[in-house]
Amino acid sequence: MKHSSTFFRRVSLSVLAAATVSVMTWPLSVHGAQASSPPSIIVRAATQPRWVSLEASVEAVRETTVSAQVQGAIMELRVKAGDAVRSGQPLLRIDSQAAQVQNDVAAKEYERQRQLFDQQFISQGALDRALAQARASQVQTDLYVLTAPYAGVVREVPVALGDMAMPGRPLLVLYDPAALRVTVSVPQALLASVGTEPVLRYELNGQAPRLVESARLLPTVDPVSRTAQLRFDLPKSVSGVVPGMYVRVWLSVQEQAGGRILVPATALVRRGDMNGVYVLDAGGQARLRQVRLGPVDGERVEILSGVADGDRVVIDAGRALRLP
Asked: Residues of the chain with pLDDT > 90: what percent?
């Protein structure tokens, strides 16, 4: 069959975007009058998993808000946001002048009671009560110096020198950088397709997608967003990650009805705005069909229209055929 210039005609975007794409065919000339059929596969519409893209964030497994149990002005602030701290390291000090005076009074009173006990003027019970009072005063004084509960990184310091610390007011936020996780919100409509053992991949910092070894679906659904929380831990080998970072998560869900037609990406032919594949007719003649593409699934591409179940599609149009 003689070729015409219509082979190179650009197909309008409006046609590609239509819900039903008409199938247009062009005969394919190969080198030689009688050419054998190129390698092909029979496509089947199969119920199989598909990857759904979701947005997520990195969060710390262990994060602590440090607050005061006493009232007083902040007299010393020893850390700032981003500092790494060790367990027990002093973080800030609150004015403890009144508490220190009380502690000194209690210490002197205990010493006086101990001398009276040595002279047998008071009982052992009276001495024990004086000791308990002195220890309570010391504990009260210790509350004015806040220390790190574990080794971590200071995430936020919402106060400054001179600010007034009040019982319950957040003074610092600390997190453990050795234990990070990702939390993703899964729409309620997808929960039935997730299964008891979710299969996920994630992309972080522009790196190649990684397969998640283990994920857990929390057994509650938010009544406002109608989503459930899916969590998985990040490997300790992942570096340069801090809470709040954006993560792209791909969730594998099982199609409940119908099926998808997937072809190798090498089967695609692109002509301007037109996407197509070569399909063999009953006589083994390869003809180019316009198709509408769906999502990419690894090395395969979903065909939304233009190819039907049972069609024989050429596997590699670029290598097996000599295109006009």
From this structure: 30
Q: Where are the alpha helices (DSSP H) in 224-304?
A: none
Where does 188-323 show beta strands of DSSP type E? Answer: 200-203, 210-211, 216-221, 227-233, 246-254, 261-264, 268-271, 274-280, 286-290, 292-297, 300-305, 312-314
Which residues are within 8 A (CB) of 126 and not within 5 positions of it... i.e. 6 or more apart? 113, 116, 117
Query: Which element (helix H / strand E) includes 136?
Result: helix 124-142
Distance CA 106, CA 108 (A): 5
DSSP string for residues in 100-127: HHHHHHHHHHHHHHHHHHHTTSS-HHHH
Instruction: Work out the end-to-end distance of the chain between its first and last CA atoms, rounded to an integer number of angstroms.
Output: 12
Amino acid sitting at position 269: V
Per-residue pLDDT at 59 exceeds 80: yes
**Is the distance from CB of 213 to CB of 199 less than 8 angstroms?**
no
- Which amino acid is it at 263? V
Residue with tokens 């390698």: 39
Which tens digit of pLDDT belongs to each residue from 68-124?
Answer: 888 888 889 999 999 999 999 999 988 866 455 555 665 666 677 677 778 777 778
Q: How far apart are CA 69 and CA 84, in angstroms?
A: 24
